[in-house]
Amino acid sequence: MTPDPRNALALFKANLELQFRLCDLMRRNTLRWNEAQNRMIDGCASEFEASATRLLDAPDWQQVGFVATDLGWKSLQQRNCALLKMAEAVVANQSALQQDMQQAWAQWQHDCTRALKEASGTMPLSATFEELLATATRPALLPGSKG
């Protein structure tokens, strides 16, 4: 028995859709990282402007010394906050990417198994393989499913 070309086309399309989806996920992940970097740069620029303004507003050298001492402690505090925000961004970005990729793989698996299941009429399948197909096509694996 020759396989149905429509099934091969369905598998090809499922693989191509997965590649497109993974490329889009990488693009969106890069955009999230760029946004996090821009926030960090904006924070540093704002910190520098505030520090420079305080120094420029100092009426005498004694006040400049006080401001400079205070800026050292503020800078240390702000660096700790910046590190915390960066750690939060890392966790959020990686979690989002992991979840999106898991959904992409589940959808790909579902599409491929559906194509193989449709081909089962033309190709003999073992009972073990049929069980794997049944497991892989459960709705609970697909994004947005409640099962």
- Radius of gyration from the alpha-carbon trace, in angstroms: 28 Å
Q: What's the number of helices?
A: 3
Globular, elongated, flat, extended or rod-shaped: what is the shape?
A: rod-shaped
Poorly predicted residue ranges: none
Share of helix, binned: over 70%
Largest sheet: none
Terminal residue distance: 37 Å
How many beta-strand runs? 0
The run of helices and strands is HHH
Structural class: mainly alpha
How confident is the prediction overall: mean pLDDT? 83
Roughly what fraction of the amino acids lie in strands? under 5%
Describe the structure using short key phrases:
83% helix, 147 residues, mainly alpha, single chain
Spell out the blueprint of helices and strands:
Elements: H1 5-57, H2 61-119, H3 127-136
Helix pairs in contact: 1-2, 2-3
In short:
This protein is mainly alpha-helical.
Structural description of this entry:
This protein is mainly α and 147 residues long. 83% of the residues lie in helices and 0% in strands. It contains 3 helices and no strands. Helix 1 packs antiparallel against helix 2 (61-119) and helix 2 (61-119) packs antiparallel against helix 3 (127-136). The model has no long low-confidence stretch (mean pLDDT 83).
